[in-house]
């Protein structure tokens, strides 16, 4: 890496530095590569380390960089696109669904979920899944499925784990899907989500709640939590979650 001095510019120096760093990321670094330490970067660009930190923080917020404990600052992969279209609608676990099942258990859902499912204090099937991108976990999901939606599940010999989760989803797919709708909100990672997503508690997350309807009622409810530094909202013709690898489509 050569030495590049910043010229005097009217905008704040850290914003100009952010632009220069972004261009360097595109031309000199690959996804997952570790950046030089702050001292070396500050020397290369002729800025104070405080200015450098501001620029790095902006790039991290935009999803261009990620700071990994015990590793350092690395170039982040393209963001996951969370599509909010109204086109093809499918049950979870069908087609090219990229979510991977973790386990399934019987549990009493939180009060808002119980109200949406109209299950009262009854237990439901709780399916846990996760989503990977570029070798890292970028999202986790909780699927709440009432017993009435999978009445024949008792005949399936899959007591726990991913096999049980897949069995529940297969039974759910026996219903004719009437439709689905989504709600999106910003949130902060709780202790469990932070651990699953390798983030600090309180880190920003995007929470996508999906309601699946069949036979005139809510047949399942999914709550997916995405790392906010890895995803972006898209408004297309499909409600599926897509991974965009084209750098030109990276969120800014």
* Biggest sheet character: 6 strands, antiparallel
Alpha carbon gap, first and last residue: 25 Å
Number of helices: 6
The low-confidence runs, each spanning 5 or more residues with pLDDT under 50, are 239-252
Tell me what portion of residues adopts beta-strand conformation. Answer: 25-35%
Radius of gyration: 22 Å
Order of helices and strands: HHHEEEEHEEHEHEEEE
Q: How many strands appear in the DSSP assignment?
A: 11
- What gross morphology would you assign? elongated
How do the strands of the widest beta sheet line up side by side? 4-5-6-9-8-7
Helix content: 25-40%
Query: pLDDT average, as an integer?
Result: 82
User: Which structural class best describes the helix and strand composition?
Assistant: alpha+beta
Explained architecture:
- Helix content is 25%, strand content 31%.
- The longest helix has 16 residues, at 13-28.
- The strands form 3 sheets. It has a 6-stranded antiparallel beta sheet with strand order 4-5-6-9-8-7.
- With 252 residues, it is α+β, with helices and mostly antiparallel strands.
- A hairpin with a 2-residue loop joins β5 (124-133) and β6 (136-145).
- Residues 239-252 have low confidence and may be disordered.
- The protein has helices at residues 13-28, 38-45, 49-61, 111-117, 161-172, 191-197, and strands spanning 65-68, 72-75, 80-83, 100-107, 124-133, 136-145, 179-188, 204-214, 217-227, 231-234, 241-243.
- α1 (13-28) crosses α3 and α2 (38-45) packs across α3 (49-61).
- The protein starts with 12 loop residues before the first helix and ends in a 9-residue tail after the last strand.
- The chain is built from 6 helices and 11 strands.
């Amino acid at each position: 890496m050569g030495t590049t001095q910043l010229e005097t510019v009217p905008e704040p120096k850290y914003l100009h530095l952010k632009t220069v760093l972004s261009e360097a990321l595109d031309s000199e670094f690959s996804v997952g590569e570790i950046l030089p330490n702050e001292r070396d970067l500050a020397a290369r660009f002729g800025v104070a380390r405080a200015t450098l930190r501001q620029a790095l923080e902006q790039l991290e917020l935009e999803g261009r960089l990620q700071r990994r404990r015990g590793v350092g600052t690395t170039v982040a992969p393209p963001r996951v696109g969370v599509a909010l279209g109204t086109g093809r609608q499918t049950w979870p676990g069908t087609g090219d669904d990229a979510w991977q099942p973790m386990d399934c258990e019987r549990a009493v859902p939180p009060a808002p979920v119980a109200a949406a499912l109209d299950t009262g204090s009854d237990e439901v099937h709780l399916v846990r899944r996760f989503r990977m991108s570029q070798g890292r976990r970028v999202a986790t999901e909780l699927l709440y499925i009432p017993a009435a939606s999978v009445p024949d599940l008792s005949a399936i010999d899959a007591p726990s784990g991913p096999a049980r989760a897949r069995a529940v989803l297969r039974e759910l797919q026996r219903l004719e899907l009437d439709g689905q709708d989504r709600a999106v909100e910003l949130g902060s990672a709780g202790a469990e989500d932070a651990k699953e997503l390798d983030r600090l508690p309180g880190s920003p997350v995007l929470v996508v709640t999906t309601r699946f309807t069949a036979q005139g009622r809510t047949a399942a409810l999914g709550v997916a939590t995405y790392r906010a530094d890895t995803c972006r909202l898209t408004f297309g013709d499909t409600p599926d979650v897509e991974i965009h690898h084209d750098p030109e489509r990276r969120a800014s």
